[in-house]
Amino acid sequence: MLLWLVELADELQVFNLFRYITFRTGAALFTSATIVFLFGPAIIASLRVRQGKGQPIRADGPQTHFKKAGTPTMGGIMILAGIVGSSLLWADLSNIYVVATLLVTLGFGAIGFYDDYLKVTKQTDKGFSGKARLGLEFVIAGIATYFMMRAAVSSGVAGSELGTSIAFPFVKGFVLDLGIFFVLFGGFVIVGAGNAVNLTDGLDGLATVPVMISAASFGIIAYLAGNAVFANYLQIHFVPGTGELAVILGAVIGAGLGFLWFNAPPAAIFMGDTGSLALGGLIGTVAVATKHEVVMAIIGGLFVIETLSVIIQVGSFKLTGKRVFLMAPIHHHFEKKGWTESQVVIRFWIIAVILALVGLSTLKLR
């Protein structure tokens, strides 16, 4: 929205700053953090009054969780307000990748909000129908993927056929062209990312910081992939327009910092599905846009581990009647083994940092 101020650069040189993605990314970070800090207390107070008993606590969960009873959920509203409000101010709203990313973020956020609403009103940990929820997520993700794919294909840039292809790290120049079926692949990546972050969001701050780490990593990737000079130097695929996604990812970091202030133990608010689904979907959309879907599995490796632990647990129980973990997702397993919540959270943060650094190393190892 504020990008039009560039037109005034001839009259006042300071407005020339608005041309630069780096400046607008920093401004978006500061703006989103400010929005969450300013409006967070009022949102928390309102949710506490409206929700009464707050988020239901799983009866089979660790005993330490029962002291969190009464804590309101749907804190993702704060995060979405920061991200969307800041993005509307600082991002280029004519950019198809920006529009697609905001579409997924708001769409997944709405699905998560409805899921949280059902859980709170019915006081159960069972919310929206799983099949219906996944169906809606795939529709939203598929639409976003299609338009991003068409934008890449019609860009006119050499190698624009990459819009329907999967790129692989460590292997220079090799891509797998899926054609129209890339819509299904992109949809799967986005939906998978959304639900992976959702599964990880089980402890105070556990999902928030890894999401911020992923956002910072993909902010770097988006900026480089959207710049022809840097992309050529690093021998990664140049995708025109994706650099603008760094602005949205800056807003994610700012909103995450603001939310973490209220979510730090003991949490005054939980993110809920409203936030976790939206944030995961956002990261997945950026990965699809920048052609770094495979790298996302490395940078977001913590989310992959959490998801695999659930798949393994469910599969093992159905096939053999035995459980592999004391409880899934895996962060609950370590709680059951005697780790304190802070030990689990901080150690998982460390893992997220290491995996992000490994993922970023793929930019040069070609």
TrEMBL record:
Catalytic activity: UDP-N-acetyl-alpha-D-muramoyl-L-alanyl-gamma-D-glutamyl-meso-2,6-diaminopimeloyl-D-alanyl-D-alanine + di-trans,octa-cis-undecaprenyl phosphate = di-trans,octa-cis-undecaprenyl diphospho-N-acetyl-alpha-D-muramoyl-L-alanyl-D-glutamyl-meso-2,6-diaminopimeloyl-D-alanyl-D-alanine + UMP
Subcellular location: Cell membrane; Membrane
Pathway where this protein functions: Cell wall biogenesis; peptidoglycan biosynthesis
Ranges annotated as spanning the membrane: 27-49, 69-90, 96-114, 134-153, 173-193, 205-225, 245-262, 269-289, 295-317, 344-363
Keywords: Cell cycle, Cell division, Cell membrane, Cell shape, Cell wall biogenesis/degradation, Magnesium, Membrane, Metal-binding, Peptidoglycan synthesis, Transferase, Transmembrane, Transmembrane helix
One of the protein's GO biological processes: peptidoglycan biosynthetic process
GO cellular component, one term: plasma membrane
One GO MF term: phospho-N-acetylmuramoyl-pentapeptide-transferase activity
Residues the record lists as binding Mg(2+): N198, D273
Main localization (coarse): membrane
Membrane topology: Multi-pass membrane protein
EC number: 2.7.8.13
Cofactor: Mg(2+)
Function: Catalyzes the initial step of the lipid cycle reactions in the biosynthesis of the cell wall peptidoglycan: transfers peptidoglycan precursor phospho-MurNAc-pentapeptide from UDP-MurNAc-pentapeptide onto the lipid carrier undecaprenyl phosphate, yielding undecaprenyl-pyrophosphoryl-MurNAc-pentapeptide, known as lipid I.
Family listed: Belongs to the glycosyltransferase 4 family. MraY subfamily.
Protein known as: Phospho-N-acetylmuramoyl-pentapeptide-transferase
Organism: Mycoplana azooxidifex
Gene designation per UniProt: mraY
